[in-house]
């Protein structure tokens, strides 16, 4: 980890300030409507897929390595270019955080669907649901859409906010952009469609590994920040392992317990019906008002994540400082 610059600003300081600034910009502006860096990455990854696609795990692993590896390398080069320029390092971190997190847009989309459901306008809710998740909206009634929105808010709090900040605290800008690249690749090719069943295997497994710590941190903070810590912890411990996703399970279970609701059950993806185990079976059915409660819980988790990641980075930097001084003496 780089030491303190001549201006007195260390790498941990730059991350803490940059992450706070990036989240503040996201809160004010949300995702850019045009020219989003993640969308540009998606187009580039799709172009690489067109060149490399074969129905084989090895070719899929190469696709993952090229796309994620080049993103991490670019992030590392950018971070290296500003390592002795504190203001530029803060700005780069802030821009990267804004580019990779999506908490504000997540909340806006969720509340827009909740507003349509509250008004009884199911068609508008169905039109907006694909902006949030990949489920078949035509197969869902009002309560099922409300449940889908709450589950998506929970899962995307981990994927779009907490996981990125965690890896940013661990590895700086390369960690931020690398995590987002891996998560995006999983969304693009990690599903079990005929085209991607083998080709997307590497992206899906890498996303499971990269998302593991962020998912547990999200679940822990949802337990702390929710209205029922005991219920959240109980649901996490008893139901998380039932979920087919090793990372969505803890997040959705803890949100269900914290909000006192029941998640899981039957859902449909592109004509494929899945029957998932119920999470927090003792809770009540999801209501439209629970969408806003889930968004507010997501925001509290985001604030706590910033505090935990920035604080952890600062503490790690302080503990490493004596060793750096001895090496430089």
Pick out its properties.
11 helices, 329 residues
Shape category? globular
Kindly name the structural category: mainly alpha
Report the biggest beta sheet as strand number plus sense, adding barrel if it closes. 2 strands, antiparallel
Give me the number of helical elements: 11
Helix content: over 70%
In total, the number of strands is 2
H-E string: HHHHHHHHHHEEH
Uncertain residue ranges: none
Mean pLDDT across all amino acids: 92
Amount of beta strand: under 5%
Beginning-to-end CA distance, first to last residue:
17 Å
Task: Identify the strand order in the major beta sheet.
Answer: 1-2
Set down the secondary structure blueprint.
Elements: H1 11-29, H2 37-52, H3 57-81, H4 86-100, H5 103-118, H6 122-128, H7 142-189, H8 201-225, H9 229-239, H10 248-259, E1 263-269, E2 272-279, H11 289-328
Antiparallel strand pairs: 1-2
Q: What features would you describe in this structure?
A:
By secondary structure, the protein is mainly alpha-helical. 71% of the residues lie in helices and 5% in strands. It is built from eleven helices and two strands; from the N terminus they run H-H-H-H-H-H-H-H-H-H-E-E-H. It has a two-stranded antiparallel sheet with strand order 1-2. Helix 8 packs parallel to helix 10. The radius of gyration is 20 Å and the shape is globular. The model has no long low-confidence stretch (mean pLDDT 92).
């Amino acid at each position: 980890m780089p030491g303190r610059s001549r201006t007195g600003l260390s790498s941990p300081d730059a991350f803490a300030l940059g992450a706070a600034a990036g989240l503040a910009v996201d809160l004010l502006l949300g995702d850019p409507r045009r020219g989003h860096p993640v969308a540009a990455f998606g187009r580039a990854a799709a172009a690489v897929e067109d060149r490399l696609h074969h129905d084989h795990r090895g070719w899929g692993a190469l696709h993952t390595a090229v796309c994620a590896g080049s993103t991490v390398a670019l992030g590392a080069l950018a971070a290296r270019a500003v390592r002795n320029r504190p203001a530029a390092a803060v700005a780069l971190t802030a821009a990267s955080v804004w580019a990779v997190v999506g908490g504000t847009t997540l909340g806006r989309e969720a509340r827009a669907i909740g507003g349509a459901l509250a008004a009884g306008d199911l068609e508008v809710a169905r039109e907006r649901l694909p902006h949030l998740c990949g489920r078949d909206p035509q197969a869902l009634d009002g309560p099922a859409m409300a449940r889908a929105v709450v589950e998506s808010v929970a899962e995307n709090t981990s994927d779009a906010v907490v996981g990125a900040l965690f890896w940013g605290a661990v590895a700086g800008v390369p960690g931020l952009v690398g995590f987002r690249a891996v998560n995006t690749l999983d969304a693009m090719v990690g599903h079990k469609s005929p085209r991607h069943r083998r080709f997307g295997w590497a992206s899906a497994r890498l996303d499971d590994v990269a998302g593991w710590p962020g998912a547990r941190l999200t679940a822990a903070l949802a337990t702390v920040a929710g209205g029922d810590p005991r219920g959240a912890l109980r649901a996490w411990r008893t139901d998380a392992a039932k979920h087919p996703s090793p990372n969505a399970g803890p997040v959705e279970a803890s949100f269900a317990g914290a909000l006192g609701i029941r998640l899981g059950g039957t859902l449909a993806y592109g004509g494929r019906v899945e029957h998932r185990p119920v999470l927090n079976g003792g809770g009540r059915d999801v209501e439209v008002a629970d969408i806003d409660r889930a968004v507010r819980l997501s925001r509290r988790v985001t604030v706590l994540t910033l505090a935990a990641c920035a604080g952890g980075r600062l503490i790690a930097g302080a503990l490493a400082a004596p060793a750096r001084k001895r090496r430089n003496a």
